[in-house]
């Protein structure tokens, strides 16, 4: 049984996540307000950021940076700056 959320990223109703994928308050906020589609889009951005910036997920500063980028992307509609990456032209 899928659930619908009003996605803060897409600004429309969409299929919600099946379970909380991120810990804590932020995780709950994501679960309640972010769709599967928006989360999948973030996962792609996150992978590019980790690779581009050579982030180490064991480093608290790197995790903090990534969490900030995730919050900006999902809730503020801000695309992370990924050097050397040009989005495909629509």
From TrEMBL:
Keyword NAD (UniProt): no
Which Pfam family is an annotated match for this chain, by its short name?
Iron_traffic
- Which key words tag this protein in UniProt? Iron
Q: Which GO terms describe its biological process?
A: cellular response to oxidative stress
GO cellular component: a single term: cytosol
The UniProt entry's coiled-coil ranges are none
Q: Show the GO MF annotations.
A: iron ion binding
Quaternary arrangement and interactors, per the entry?
Monomer.
Function of the protein = Could be a mediator in iron transactions between iron acquisition and iron-requiring processes, such as synthesis and/or repair of Fe-S clusters in biosynthetic enzymes. Necessary to maintain high levels of aconitase under oxidative stress.
Return the similarity comment: Belongs to the Fe(2+)-trafficking protein family.
- Name of this chain's protein: Probable Fe(2+)-trafficking protein
